[in-house]
């Protein structure tokens, strides 16, 4: 427990660099400064009318019966119509929806809105012929091919809810999700590409289907042409069934019609099926996409370098951008295939103007060095974004300098699978940027920081991030699990949504995200967030990436253990280790000085790139490892264990 009167999470690292908006950018920005003055209801009413086309207009903005909200009640719409058909009707059929870049170099396709419409209609007809209609649950297990958004949109066109399962997940993970949702049809592909190697998607799907009895048909896209096993009567080729381009009218659905479930893994327990519905989700994603990325659909080439299998891809590769008639890049492969300049080659080829990625990717590029970006012309970039983890100030500044030519705004956007849309973020023409801060709640969002007792903290203090009013894209619960919904998000504080993240407010009232509260360390009664110590480490010129955690210590309660990845060309040594410990002490204070530093070439991460500190705690405590099934690369922890043991031996 903390002493009475001491803050819930202490703040130690101060970052003082400031980047006010460039007047030229501000003059052309979609979001003017006065946007923050619009009232909650006024803002979401107007967005509801302007972002989306309705078959029947909504009659009530929202209904709030905690912990469940409904939005845009009385309205009828179709999500796929909004994302595709209406743009073609408006004469934008020739506009590019996706520049698709396959992982094998030279594998490229340009898909206009008219092409997208034709493909969606054909695939919706195919699904129909397999008995899919309004309400039929469909599973999608694919790589980053254009047919993935096509399949999602075809479902939305029919009012059939989908669940997209990330193509890197195993057969077991797929089976769990298909069963939980009761999917009747599965859409997959023969194989995917990852770092030049085929990924056996159909084979995994076959294995999953042995324990997923609800699935009666499997549609298989031919991607690599690799051999696959076939079950007659169940399996059909995409190219055999998606031939009928006769009219397939979009199905008008109610605002609250289920659009999709997306499963998010808790740290140990069974994945939660996060429920997202149609109208509020579409308005929320389109609105945030327009203002935060300052999207100019006529001229921008927007690239969200996430995977569609995560919520970032759902909201900001598929639904938000297409609703806004944007031109996007869709890239199939990894950032380092065939070499570490691949991303920058893509930016140059398509003239990407807005790039949205994750801190983990930025730190990987830092590790590889800026020379890869320097080989390419990145002058088209005018705005950069970050999502997924707190971004270390040094990574933020590196991103701006080496990718954005020290010229582009960087928007650090905080949100979750559960929130559906970005909630805390700068607006690029308005906000003074601070590296490491997501700055302030989006217009129409009521976020606050509470202390242990549920009292709101003032500027300068840290605590728990909460949301006090519903928002259009918020989750509508956990599929089939009311209790868990209440317990996970609504039981920590009365009547407000608890995000599970720590945050602090600075003197200006800007938000600094501090990571998951479960990761907070307690050293001699001081509650220290992992991100601050990590950012102090990344601040050192030799460090590319760092993760810290607490381990039990007889004297201080917990002691800090740091796992550090050095930049290319740097050698670990005892001197380097002492230097880093002292660097943290100088940046933050002796209290935060790591007791141990372990050098490691990689950190354990989830498939979406988040550092898994839970496993580092297991290593630090010499405990058997907990659940490792969500690890991107299982060999990494073993390697770290070996290094940690060697380091303990050295002491
Ligand atoms: C973390 C991803 C700090 C946070 C969209 C959140 C962030 C979790 C940020 C949700 C950010 C995401 N700054 N932390 N800008 N963005 N997070 O569900 O801990 O994959 O609760 O959604 O990522 O991750 P999820």
CATH fold naming of the domain at 515-650: GMP Synthetase, Chain A, domain 3
Structural class call reads alpha/beta
What general outline do the C-alpha atoms trace? globular
Query: Strand content of the residues, in percent?
Result: 15-25%
Number of DSSP E strands: 29
List the strand order in the largest sheet: 5-4-17-16-18-19-20
Summarize the structure.
The chain has 651 residues and is α/β, with parallel strands linked by helices. Helices cover 31% and strands 22% of the residues. The chain has 19 helices and 29 strands.
Entry keywords:
single chain, 651 residues, alpha/beta, GMP Synthetase, Chain A, domain 3, five-stranded parallel β-sheet, 31% helix, 22% strand, disordered N terminus
What can you see in these coordinates?
About 30% of the residues lie in helices and about 20% in strands. The protein has about 650 residues and is of the alpha/beta class. It has a domain at about 515-650: ANL, C-terminal domain (GMP Synthetase, Chain A, domain 3), CATH 3.30.300.30. A 7-stranded mixed beta sheet has the order 5-4-17-16-18-19-20, sandwiched between helices. It has a 5-stranded parallel beta sheet with strand order 7-6-8-11-12, sandwiched between helices. A 4-stranded antiparallel beta sheet has the order 21-22-23-24. Helix 9 (about 280-290) crosses helix 10. The two termini are about 30 Å apart. The relative contact order is 0.11. The model is unreliable at about 1-5 (pLDDT under 50). The site of 5'-O-[(S)-ethoxy(hydroxy)phosphoryl]adenosine has 21 residues, from helix 10, strand 23 and strand 24.
């Amino acid at each position: 427990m903390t002493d009475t009167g001491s803050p819930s999470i202490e703040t130690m690292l101060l970052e003082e660099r400031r980047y006010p908006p460039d007047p030229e950018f501000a003059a052309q920005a979609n979001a003017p400064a006065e946007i923050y003055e619009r009232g909650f209801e006024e803002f979401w009413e107007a967005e509801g009318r302007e972002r989306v086309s309705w078959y029947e207009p909504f009659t009530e903005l929202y209904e709030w019966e905690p912990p469940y909200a409904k939005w845009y009640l009385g309205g009828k719409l179709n999500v796929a119509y909004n994302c595709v058909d209406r743009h073609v009707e408006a004469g934008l059929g020739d506009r590019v929806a996706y520049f698709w870049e396959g992982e094998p170099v030279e594998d490229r396709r340009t898909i206009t809105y008219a092409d997208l419409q034709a493909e969606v209609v054909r695939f919706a007809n195919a699904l129909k012929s397999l008995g899919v209609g309004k309400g039929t649950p469909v599973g999608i297990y694919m790589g980053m091919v254009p047919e993935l958004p096509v399949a999602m949109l075809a479902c939305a066109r029919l009012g059939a809810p989908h669940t997209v399962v990330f193509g890197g997940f195993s057969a077991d993970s797929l089976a769990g999700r298909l069963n939980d949702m009761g999917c009747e049809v599965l859409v997959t592909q023969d194989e995917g590409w990852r770092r030049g190697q085929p990924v056996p998607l159909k084979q995994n799907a076959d294995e999953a289907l042995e324990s997923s009895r609800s699935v009666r048909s499997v549609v298989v896209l031919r991607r690599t042409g690799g051999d696959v096993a076939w079950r007659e009567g169940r399996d059909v080729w995409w190219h055999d069934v998606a031939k009928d381009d006769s009219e397939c009218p979009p199905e008008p659905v109610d605002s609250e019609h289920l659009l999709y479930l997306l499963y998010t893994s808790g740290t140990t327990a069974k994945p939660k099926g996060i429920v997202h519905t149609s109208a509020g989700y579409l308005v929320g994603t389109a609105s945030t996409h327009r203002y935060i990325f300052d999207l100019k659909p006529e001229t921008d080439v927007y690239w969200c370098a996430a995977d569609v299998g995560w919520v970032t891809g759902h909201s900001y590769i598929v639904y938000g951008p297409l609703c806004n008639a944007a031109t996007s890049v869709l890239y199939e492969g990894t950032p380092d295939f065939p070499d570490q300049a691949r991303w920058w080659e893509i930016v140059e080829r398509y003239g990407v103007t807005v790039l949205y990625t994750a801190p983990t990717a930025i730190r990987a590029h830092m590790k590889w060095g800026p020379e890869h970006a320097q080989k390419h012309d990145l002058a088209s970039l005018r705005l950069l974004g970050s999502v997924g983890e707190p971004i270390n100030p040094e990574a933020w500044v590196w991103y701006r300098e080496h990718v954005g030519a020290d010229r582009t705004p960087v928007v650090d956007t905080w949100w979750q699978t559960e929130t559906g849309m970005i909630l805390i973020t700068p607006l690029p023409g308005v906000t003074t940027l601070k590296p490491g801060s997501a700055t302030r709640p989006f217009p129409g969002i009521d976020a606050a920081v509470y202390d242990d007792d549920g009292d709101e903290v003032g500027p300068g203090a840290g605590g728990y991030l909460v949301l006090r009013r519903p928002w259009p894209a918020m989750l509508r619960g956990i599929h089939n699990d009311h209790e868990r919904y209440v317990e996970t998000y609504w039981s920590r504080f009365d009547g407000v949504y608890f995000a599970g993240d720590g945050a602090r407010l600075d003197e200006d009232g800007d938000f600094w995200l501090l990571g998951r509260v479960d990761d907070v360390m307690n050293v001699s009664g001081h509650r220290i967030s992992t991100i601050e110590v990590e950012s102090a480490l990344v601040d050192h010129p030799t460090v590319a990436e760092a993760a810290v955690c607490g381990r039990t210590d007889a004297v201080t309660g917990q002691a800090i253990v740091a796992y550090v990845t050095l930049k290319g060309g740097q050698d670990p040594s005892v001197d380097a280790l002492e230097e880093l410990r002292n660097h943290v002490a100088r940046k933050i204070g002796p209290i935060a000085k790591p007791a141990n530093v372990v050098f490691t070439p990689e950190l354990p991460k989830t498939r979406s790139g988040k550092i898994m500190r839970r496993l580092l705690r297991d290593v630090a405590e010499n405990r058997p490892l907990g659940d490792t099934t969500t690890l991107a690369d299982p060999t990494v922890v073993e390697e770290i264990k070996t290094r940690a043991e060697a380091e303990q031996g050295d002491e």
